[in-house]
Amino acid sequence: MKSRSLKLKIIVLAAIMTLPGVVNATIVGTVDIQHIGFGANEIASITTIYGSGYIYAGAVVFNKTGGTGEGTYWPDGLITGFCIEPEQPYPSWPTQYNVMPTQEGPLPGSSMGLTRAKYIEELWGRYYDPSWEIGANSHEAAAFAVAIWEILKEDLPMSPTGWDVGSGSFSVAGDYSLANEWLYSLDGSGPKANLRVFSNCNYQDYIAAVPEPTTIALLGIGAVAGLLRRRRTISSVR
Predict the structure, then answer these.
(1) Over the stretch 208-218, which tens digit does the pLDDT of each residue have?
(2) Pairing between strand 95-101 and 77-83?
């Protein structure tokens, strides 16, 4: 059981302010999602320019019930992603989000830009662990979330070794040296994940990996098979 004061601090941090979205952002689709819980996570004490408090750091699980455009790349059902806007509350009921290219992901009044997007894509490509989706390795998942927030909320350093999750405009209490180790390695030579941002101006924004082409192809095959079965059924009725 988490204490009442801990819950209050999480709520206070989430309700500090409603951040403005990005004007004229590129929208490539929509998804209808609802936050339903977490994968691997732990409570972290963070400080940003908007205040400080305790928050869940780790993999976020939401249920997708519809989509358009590139939002149809994800099948309806459970999706795991990471929050990129911890100051906002999460959607407790089905909510429509815009799907955006990673570099269009919103920061207050602007977008993250290509450089930050490349850092996150390489971080994800090098270190994302699917076991986080089922709750394994909580500290690693929390460190991954912390690394993402560091990339988004600090000024860009001259080199990757300039990142430091323990100080600056964004900081986290405790031993998150793993996040720094991962950040120091992001020299542009690692694999890059294919990501998209889910954005809504009233709730937390998220980042998630686009399903592999084989997954999308299998979804397409399933749709075609369903259509053929329907045609055969209609033909037999005739």
Answers:
(1) 999 987 444 44
(2) unpaired
